[in-house]
Amino acid sequence: MTRSLLLLALVALPMTSFASSFAGTSAGSASGASSASSGSSSGDDKVLLQARDDAAAFVASNGDIRGARLQAALVQLRQSDVEARSASDLQLAKALLAR
């Protein structure tokens, strides 16, 4: 009897954590959609954070290695910041790494 209860508990435990993680995931996506529509900069920050590796390669290679994520970040920076429009790609990549 004890053995069957232990087995049942071991089987049921992962299912409860799966259900809670599913609820957290669906709630997170709903809140993410609302923050994106409210003008939040979290999407912008994500683009810049994802570009750090590309920026490091770009700076280390003196501009020879240019990744797609860095390119997206450069576009984002120039669209959102007037001063960034006059900066070189290398200057912006260095500034991105300094953040």
A few lines on this structure:
The protein has 99 residues and is mainly α. 78% of the residues lie in helices and 0% in strands.
Please report the total strand number as a whole number.
Answer: 0
Mean pLDDT: 74
Largest sheet: none
Compute the CA-based radius of gyration: 22 Å
Number of domains as seen in the coordinates: 2
Q: Cα distance, first to last residue?
A: 60 Å
Number of helical segments? 5
Report the portion of residues in β strands. Answer: under 5%
Oligomeric grouping of the chains: single chain
* Helix/strand/pairing category: mainly alpha
| Low-confidence residue ranges | 5-40
Spatial shape: globular
Topology as H/E string? HHHHH
Summarize the amount of helix as a percent range.
over 70%
What does this 3D model show about the protein?
- The chain is mainly alpha-helical.
- It has 2 domains: 1-40; 41-99, no CATH class.
- Helices cover 78% and strands 0% of the residues.
- The chain has helices spanning 2-37, 42-50, 52-60, 68-80, 89-98.
- Residues 5-40 have low confidence and may be disordered.
List the helices and strands and how they pair.
Elements: H1 2-37, H2 42-50, H3 52-60, H4 68-80, H5 89-98
Helix pairs in contact: 2-4, 3-5
Any key phrases for this structure?
0% strand, 99 residues, single chain, globular, 78% helix, mainly alpha, 2 domains, 5 helices
